[in-house]
User: Fold this.
Amino acid sequence: MVVVDPACSRTDSCEQWFQPVRKTAAAGAARWITVVALLSTVAVSSRAQADLTPPGQPRTPRWVGHFTVFAANGLVGGLTAGIVQELRGGSFQDGFSRGFLGGALIYLGKRVTVGKWAGAGFAGREVAAIGTSVVRNASAAEPSLARIDLPLGPLPARLGITVDDSRDLRLRLDIVSAAWLLYGLLEPRFELDVGEALSSGVPVFRAVGGSVLERGQPALGVAVARNIFLSDPTASGGPVGTTPDPALRQTLHHERVHVLQQDFFLAAWSEPLTNAVFQRVAPGRWVPAHLAVDGLWWVMPSLRRWIYSPQDAYRFPTELEADFLAR
Ligand SMILES: [Zn+2]
Assistant:
């Protein structure tokens, strides 16, 4: 089966997507990275579970939690790139080892994005985007930095930079994110916090005199398709009426982590799969060249809803990670 990557704009480089990975000295290093990554992940996973549990339960040291989040990000990046490259006729090992390194960069981005300094959210999002690009390139058996895809901060657009002789720059509209941004701008119950949006690198809306709802329940905040909606701390009747500032700041950091998770899901899974479907229905290059279509943005929230009741939703892995890092 020939798999066509629609994001690839030139015939000569498109062919590279289907070439088996060349066996080089790097293959030996890749094997070792794979083994070390798997062993370290298994070694800490049991202890670390305890640190990612909700407050009130026994905890292991914080560094163990960080190591778990690091290993989990590496594992998700590694498995994504390993499986996709294998399906494309390449090497699982090459994909896994380079994907693991991409996942490690994503972890670094998440550490940065919860920083308390102005611009931390923006900077962390870009660092994580470079890690996500490494995963995507490893999935395609291309050089790790062949193509870098960066979100343009709070704007619903992504800049694709091809790092070869062509130096191709391509701006794509993140259409699902743009739709939610438009909703926030047009809905009178929300106000765009421009300063916080610039600092966070993502649109941040504040509810005016009310709370945002998640599964019908008032919540402090929610991140939807790379837009953050926060409740009004002065609203009465909701959970935020007496919420102190530090808790709201923690909520903002929690949602920033969700945005980075959504960036990864968009670039590594949703956009490539959506493009593949588009190519079957309406072959052509216009859509993948100009739009980043997050056709599967609803998958993760739906999974969480199907698997867990509202009381247990915090157990979903993306929630555990966001809670831990924002703490
Ligand atoms: Zn959450």
